[in-house]
Amino acid sequence: MQRFTPIAVILLIVLAALSSCMFIVRERDYALVFALGEVRQVISEPGLYFKAPPPFQNVVTLDKRIQTIESPDAERIQTSEKKNLLIDSYVKWRIVDPRLYYVTFGGNERATQERLQAQIRDALNASVNVRTVSDVVSKERDKIMSEILTNVARRAEPLGVEVVDVRLKRIEFAPEISESVYRRMEAERTRVANELRSIGAAESEKIRAEADRQREEIIAEANAKAQATMGQGDARASQLYAEAFGRDPQFYSFYKSLEGYRAAFSGSDDILVVDPSSEFFRFMKSAQGAPGTPAQAGAQR
């Protein structure tokens, strides 16, 4: 077994003493140097530092980064309308006075969180109790967060802590009033829907009435034009008939008689009982339409 020489032992003792006298401060930490339980030095700059060996001096480090505290459970807060709301929030904070912070909390981060949560709860009550549900949910939400931040930051300053931000994550109705609120919202939406339906029905009737009126006007105008056109056509036809009759009355009579024959004898099974000597058969008796003698009539029959 290899034995240490006295020189090696001395070197080991010197290295151990030196290592207990040196410490490193990282960029994200504060370092508190204690001498016999009292804070002698606060170091905020990173680097390598020296101190007396324990038990004469010892070092405690504190995190200088921004930290987040989220509420474990939603806080039950009452509004000015005596309605209970469940509000989830979080706060971002950091240590700005390490000496004061350590004196206040003894480096216990859990105690810090509990103290800040209690302050947020008090600030929430102060801001929400004087406002309505509508104000808290939408209208003045940003203003409430600003008030809470100002209130908590002022109360946290003597603790060596800076509150950077406070946010309301979720706001809900308490279970006992959610159902009544939903029913009221449903009734309101139903009322608005019925109102819109009645307005739509009235507009529909108005449009139908206007369409019916326009249709009647168009039909009346069309009938008037049709009657005028038919009148003009009848007048023109009468004029043509008169001109034709004036030019050759005998041909006109012959043509009209042919039309009468065509209409009278259009059916193959038609039976016509009439006097052969009647005026209707005058063109059958004579090509000129003149009445024939009885002998001629008998011959024609």
Automatic annotation (TrEMBL):
It is found in: Membrane. One of its GO terms (cellular component) is membrane. InterPro entries: Band_7, Band_7/SPFH_dom_sf, HflC. It comes from the Bacteria. The keyword Signal does not apply. Pfam families: Band_7. It is a single-pass membrane protein. Keywords: Membrane, Transmembrane, Transmembrane helix. SUPFAM superfamilies: Band 7/SPFH domain. Belongs to the band 7/mec-2 family. HflC subfamily. HflC and HflK could regulate a protease. This is Protein HflC. It comes from Orrella dioscoreae.
